[in-house]
Amino acid sequence: MSLVSVQNLTRVFDVSKPWLNRVIERLPKRMLTAVSDVSFEIPARTTYALVGESGSGKSTIGKMVVGLLRPTEGHVEIEGVDLVTETDAAVIDRIRSDIQMIFQDPFASLNPRWRVRDIIVEPVAARGGDTGGLAEKLLTQVGLSPDDAGKYPHQFSGGQRQRICVARALASEPKLIVCDEPTSALDVSVQAQVLNLMSDLKDEHGLTYLFISHDLTVVRHMADTIGVLYLGRLVEEAAPGDLFTKPAHPYTAMLIEAAPRLDAFGREVEPPEGEIPDPTDPPSGCAFHPRCPLATEICSVERPRLEAFGSGRVACHHAGEIALKGAA
Amino acid sequence: MSNLPDATRQGVEPLDRMEPAEVVQPSRWRSIWDADVTWSFRHSPVAVIAAVVTLTMILSAIFAPWIATTNPFDPASLNLMNGFSRPGVPNAFTGESFWLGTDDQGRDVWSTILYGLRISLFVGFMAVLFALVLGVLLGLLAGYVGGWVETIIMRVADVQLTFPSILVALLIFGVARGVIPIEYRDQMAIWVLIVAIGLSDWVQFARVVRGATLVEKNKEYVQAARLIGRKPGAIMLKHILPNVLSPVLVIATISLALAIIAEATLSFLGVGAPPTQPSLGTLIRIGQDFLFSGEWWILFFPALTLLALALSVNLLGDWLRDALNPRLR
Amino acid sequence: MDMPVLSLRNLTVDIPTRHGTLRPVDDVSWDIAAGEILGVVGESGAGKSMTGNAVIGLLDPPAHISAGEVLLEGERIDNYTLAQMRHVRGKRIGMVFQDPLTSLNPLLTIGEQLSETILRHLDVSKSEADARAIQGLDEVGIPSARNRMGAYPHEFSGGMRQRVVIALALCAEPTLLIADEPTTALDVSVQAQIIALLKRLCRERGMAAMLVTHDMGVIAETADRVAVMYAGRLAEIGPVSQIVGQPRHPYTDGLMASTPAASAGQARLRQIPGAMPRLNRMPDGCAFHPRCPRAQDKCRVDPGPKVGTADERAACWFPIEQDEAAA
Known about the structure:
Chain A is α/β, with parallel strands linked by helices. Chain A is built from 10 helices and 11 strands.
């Protein structure tokens, strides 16, 4: 059984104007579908990456997996337990202590008025656990000094704060850690340190990661499986080796080509067409069809289903027909 | 390509720290002395003077029984023949001399000011404390819980703001007067004052705290706390509250000045401190009657004291607001 | 045209604080020729944004230029008065910042903002200004530009807003464009579009550009030459192919090697130990020596050779030579 099982996950936000405005201006309700019918599995001790641009729903999925948001439809099962429908408090508590999250903004992730020690041990202290020496032990594990336990967050740099977040995430000895853009706010050299730290800890503690990012190079390095999201829909899922050499979905190919590359000086490449559509008014059928070089009539009519393709999955009527221009 | 060390595990040495180990950590007192806020205080003459004045008044009020020459609240110690003595001039009837003169009942103005300060400061502090606790709690609740709880609290606040705060205090006074039996009225007067002024003042605390709570609520550290299953109450009090307190401190200081004046106003109007325990406002009312018949000192000295106190507290609050404002640093 | 459009000579910025003087920009010199894009790359705190602000005279007091010169087409502009700088900004130097949302006035339509800027700097009639505004929007790729003149900034998406900002920066036909992290807040696909747009415009107009960013990939795609900054100092400068492919300064080398793309297929990324020193705790000698695998005694004492305006030099006593790199 997979550690995490996401089935038909959907999340809709009501972004209508206030009731009075709607009555006066005679506007309809506006619903934003952030996530639409997403299903995937994460086997234990692997890293599953969700990659996508803004509006792809990746953060929303992350929040639903950890229980910060409720799905509108579908469900999330962690170790076979659905936190939304589960009634046994002991079970809920056990599963909760197995899940943790690392956030994007190292400055807003730590309470500025709490000492580092209290921040790190909170997941254990809040449940009445024994916290003696725990903070110091974890600080050493993430490469900081045990003396830092008595300090405040503002005394640390961005990279150091992110390490403190990692230490906090480890406190309750979780099995699953959801990482929402953990290194996007960090400089490249600091990013390398933090990513290495996360890889090492994964091996040492047998962790499972759900890694959310918009950066393809990071995802390629960290993930065992990559899921590509577009406008809340999962359009492709494959291993990094396959995804980057032979992407099956035209959007994946577009992402790979558009990403700036270090060896690309002097390269003249046509940038992709168009922009991400308005999520409150998505295109009919396949959400990508207005920008897709392979689009045909069926693409604007019928939304493609996610189906097996090679060793991965694709949701495209013309799966596998796209070719990458130039080497990946 | 690279000259970087081999990409094997680096061991657990502190990777991010490459600073010299001999940096000496300053002592706690040195750190406070060097802190930005303290430095700003030391370099602001206005703040220093205001603080000195306020502190003097607070100390005088605390040590009033030792500093005052008489106890003006004890009717038995009063001698009507001492009434209307001029400042510094020995009384024609009794020969006693009073530094700031006496009022119509023979009360020594100097002592009455000191004891009156006690009432002013006590009522002021307690009223602000009451308003602060009430306002902060309601603000936290409104900001964090949202929904109809927020709507109710904020609409009540809005409605209350349409009334001048003195009017609200008078209203509460009227209600209290109707409710409390007559023999307890004098004793309870101070507490009614505190509740009245406090209830008229909570709204600004609630508004500010609600706004700050809305901002903090969306930050990741709150989400991290929710994630591990902490109850909303614990999150509000332990996580959010410490982070919304700094504007509250500034408002509280300025509210103190206003509460002191509010108490004086109510006493002036006759509904505040009881006649047996006159506060500065009472003295001003009494003095006003005699101003044009020449006994100017009964009004003048209490008014001067009130002015000095309210001004210094106000200036202190102003300085504090500027010192704590991160943008101005 | 031999004279460089922008010339920095030993530019130094100081910030006096009550704890001592900080030096966020230390003795930086470079030239940018017409039609050339110079990419200024460095991590946070390296001083690249501060350098850009110093050039356009937007340093927040008490930060000020304490030494050196800024020359725009041969004339010194670092000692200009406020009024003179106001004339320079917009007309001769265009600016694009990171956040398109706050770069545009939300209360004015984009047509009004464009026309107002054009009228301010060019001597044309109102209708001529409007026509140029429409043309400017067209050039940056805003579809049906004429109809969009009356639209407000919030009606555009992030990428479109950034295009409007670029149009605004270029409408008075400046000779130099300074772009501070112009694509950092944008999606990958939009980023690619904006990069292509900037390159095309610089080429067509023969405009010099200073592109400040921390994103190495963007630099590699966009810049002709690259300046690498570290702790306020210039570590290395040279053509992009050299900087990216054969860096000479150990910091540049470490930076390129620590990107995830450079460690393709390996379990761990290469990392530079430690972190950039804070401005109030600068080490003696070379700023990078505590983290440098090649550091020797000389590095602890002497800051390193001056990187002049000539190309391809690194501020390092023991730079990486070509034969080493191949090993």
